[in-house]
């Protein structure tokens, strides 16, 4: 014996609202993508270096962190931790980041890499 529950008109309205909401979120995220992206390296919360991403340039940046050398690789429009002298190497396992808002952090060395949009110093929002 099968228990079939028939769908009512209100169910279709709820489904349509959920689909419309999902489409709205997808469109909003697509519009957030900017033409120009920047990679930022922060050490102890201070901007160490800002790199204009895009193109075919490849670069490796190495510097001394709190626990040893940290190496970051930039490849076109993405960046990642290549190596770090820290106990767990979680930052290396994060892999490539390439979308605005993504970040990777090496806590023992207090180093963060993140991707920002075309106005990296601009105001995100104002609350009253």
Write the layout of secondary structure elements.
Blueprint: H1 9-32, E1 38-43, E2 46-52, E3 58-64, E4 69-75, E5 78-84, H2 90-94, E6 103-106, E7 111-116
Antiparallel strand pairs: 1-2, 1-7, 3-4, 4-5, 6-7
Can you give a write-up of this model?
This protein is of the alpha+beta class. It has a domain at 38-116: mini-chromosome maintenance (MCM) complex, domain 2 (Sandwich). The chain is 23% helix and 34% strand. The protein is built from two helices and seven strands. It has helices spanning 9-32, 90-94; strands at 38-43, 46-52, 58-64, 69-75, 78-84, 103-106, 111-116. The model has no long low-confidence stretch (mean pLDDT 86).
Name the overall outline: elongated
Give the proportion of residues in helices: 10-25%
Tell me the radius of gyration: 21 Å
- End-to-end separation in angstroms reads 59 Å
Structural class: alpha+beta
Order of helices and strands: HEEEEEHEE
> What is the overall number of helices?
2
Transmembrane segments: 12-31
Keywords: Membrane, Transmembrane, Transmembrane helix
Pfam families: NusG_II
InterPro entries: NusG_2_sf (IPR038690)
Task: Please sum up the structure shown.
The chain is α+β, with helices and mostly antiparallel strands and 128 residues long. The protein is 23% helix and 34% strand.
Q: Keywords for this structure?
A:
128 residues; mini-chromosome maintenance (MCM) complex, domain 2; four-stranded antiparallel sheet; three-stranded antiparallel sheet; 23% helix; 34% strand
């Amino acid at each position: 014996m099968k228990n079939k529950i028939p769908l009512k008109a209100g169910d279709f309205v709820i489904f349509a609202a959920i689909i419309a909401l999902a489409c709205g979120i997808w469109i909003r995220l697509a519009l957030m993508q900017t033409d120009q992206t920047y990679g930022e390296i922060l050490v102890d919360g201070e901007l160490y270096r800002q790199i204009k991403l895009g193109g075919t340039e490849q670069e490796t940046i190495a510097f001394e962190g709190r626990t040893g050398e940290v190496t970051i690789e930039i490849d076109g429009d993405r960046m990642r931790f290549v190596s770090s002298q820290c106990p767990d190497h979680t930052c290396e396992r994060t892999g490539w980041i390439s979308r605005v808002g993504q970040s990777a952090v090496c806590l023992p060395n207090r180093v963060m890499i993140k991707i920002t949009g075309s106005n990296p110093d601009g105001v995100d929002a104002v609350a009253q």
